[in-house]
């Protein structure tokens, strides 16, 4: 670091050398603060990352799946009925604090007896999912639950007990009415 030696003159005309340790301390402090702040923003650099989440209907028996997703205060525009083997996806940017979270209500009619299977799931949480799947996260919906990796033996999220309310999503979207079985024809995508 460069040290400065200032010479000042007094009113009597005699010059004096001053160490100016306060000035040097101030320069050191500024340099340290710049390093600290730049390292903070470097560690948050993974935030603001563009992420794509894909939810795939892998439910055996080929039932159609309904899905409605939202993040805090925002409902996704498209709420389709998704056929077996098809998917929906959306892109977004992770917030600076890694608190981005998406919850989805997913339902389908059991192909064996027709009863409604329904659950709300935390499909994406930046704090845990960004390190796990980076900018491309896939979710596989099956009769055992939601799988985050296609080779997993156990579901990451299981279908909730219909008699116990779920508290997984603090901003849970309202479920679609379960009155009619899900069908491709005549199913409204606005629920």
UniProtKB/TrEMBL annotation:
GO biological process: one example: rejection of self pollen
Location relative to the cell: Secreted
Record keyword Secreted present: yes
Keyword set includes Transcription: no
Organism: Macleaya cordata
Transmembrane regions: 21-41
Principal location class: secreted
Keyword list, A-Z: Membrane, Secreted, Self-incompatibility, Signal, Transmembrane, Transmembrane helix
The family this protein is said to belong to: Belongs to the plant self-incompatibility (S1) protein family.
Listed name of the protein: Plant self-incompatibility S1
GO cellular component: extracellular region
Any Pfam family the entry gives: Self-incomp_S1
InterPro entries in UniProt: Self-incomp_S1
Upper classification of the organism: Eukaryota, Viridiplantae, Streptophyta, Embryophyta, Tracheophyta
Signal sequence residues: none
């Amino acid at each position: 670091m460069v040290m400065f030696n200032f010479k000042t003159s007094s009113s009597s005309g005699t010059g004096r050398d001053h160490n100016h340790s306060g000035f040097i301390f101030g320069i050191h402090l500024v340099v340290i603060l710049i390093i600290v702040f730049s390292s903070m923003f470097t560690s948050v650099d993974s935030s603001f990352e563009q992420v794509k989440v894909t939810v795939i209907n892998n439910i055996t028996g080929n039932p159609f799946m309904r899905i409605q997703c939202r993040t805090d205060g925002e409902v996704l525009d498209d709420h389709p009925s998704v056929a077996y083997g098809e998917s929906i996806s959306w892109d977004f940017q992770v917030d600076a604090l890694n608190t981005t979270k998406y919850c989805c209500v997913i339902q389908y009619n059991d192909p064996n007896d027709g009863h409604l299977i329904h659950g709300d799931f935390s499909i994406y949480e930046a704090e845990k999912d960004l390190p796990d799947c980076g900018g491309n996260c896939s979710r596989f919906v099956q009769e055992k639950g939601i799988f985050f990796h296609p080779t997993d033996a156990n579901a990451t999220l299981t279908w909730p007990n219909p008699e116990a309310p779920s508290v997984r999503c603090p901003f849970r979207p309202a479920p679609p009415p379960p009155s009619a079985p899900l069908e491709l024809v005549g199913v409204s995508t606005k629920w």
